[in-house]
């Protein structure tokens, strides 16, 4: 088994005399900044002037300033800006403030791995990448738990980059759940593959395909939603808690027989072949290029697809049904 690191392996004191800048206060930024502060570390939040999140961060008791000011004052600079904007902000507002001995931190390897950010040799460059959404990074920390994370060292100028990464991981609560050491290449490629083929792209298309099949065959959209979307969480929760065998123990034998005989007819050799192609396009940089170019032309394809997705029948039915489940906190539109 790969080596895992836990609380006892990490020394928070390495960060105690340092100033940490968390740049961005979105999903990861708000979570990491508050967790680090609650772990007793000195945190500055860097945002652009006029950001609606400025007052949110201040309300959480954090000191907020511009990205450039925070980068200038901090020893450890965690870049939690959107991946596609990081290189421009880095050039204009971070790079001028880098000095020997500072550390640059990422939660995703995209910009380093694909060469969009090339830091000077005399700074540490490492990654602390939570394997979960920011809101869970915060919520689990508050509950005394944590989200597992990956760490990786790209440049070890000061000789302590690995230990600093572990200390940072401890500061956000990740060493409670487990920290795995990886490389920027492995994190970037597996993260992109996971979100595209399995977690986000794979799951939403599977749900929609099931939903559409039932609705087209004349079943009520509400039944189709419960079967193909709502129940997904309940099933995944069981797998998360105790693996596939625990999920299969909990479902009926009828469901288990159907699961084992039909699943392979849905995810076929054809699907696996396409997965390998998707992985190749990530590895050879084709996906990164497409995404960076899409941003340079202000995202016409992204916007059109996002609109069509939001208007899908599964979203309309789901919204109505969720409104009848008051224990679900209302999110999104
Ligand atoms: P979000 O989109 O949620 O937040 C981005 C933040 O950056 C916002 O606070 C935004 O503030 C700020 N921002 C955007 N543009 C600028 C700019 N030009 N100057 C200054 N501030 C700016 O990002 P995420 O938290 O999703 O992602 C951050 C990093 O974490 C990425 O590298 C991502 O891959 C990684 N990551 C994210 C995960 C997640 O859970 N979302 C999981 C693991 C890794 P405003 O718009 O108010 O100015
Ligand atoms: Mg990702
Ligand atoms: Mg059933």
Task: Explain what this protein looks like in three dimensions.
The protein is α/β, with parallel strands linked by helices. It has 15 helices and 9 strands. A 9-stranded mixed β-sheet has the order 1-9-8-7-6-5-2-3-4. Helix 8 packs antiparallel against helix 12 and helix 9 crosses helix 10. The radius of gyration is 22 Å and the shape is globular. The mean pLDDT is 97. The chain binds NADPH dihydro-nicotinamide-adenine-dinucleotide phosphate and magnesium ion (MG) (2 copies). The site of NADPH dihydro-nicotinamide-adenine-dinucleotide phosphate has 24 residues, from helix 1, helix 4 and strand 7. NADPH dihydro-nicotinamide-adenine-dinucleotide phosphate binds next to helix 1, helix 4 and strand 7. Its EC number is 1.1.1.86. Belongs to the ketol-acid reductoisomerase family.
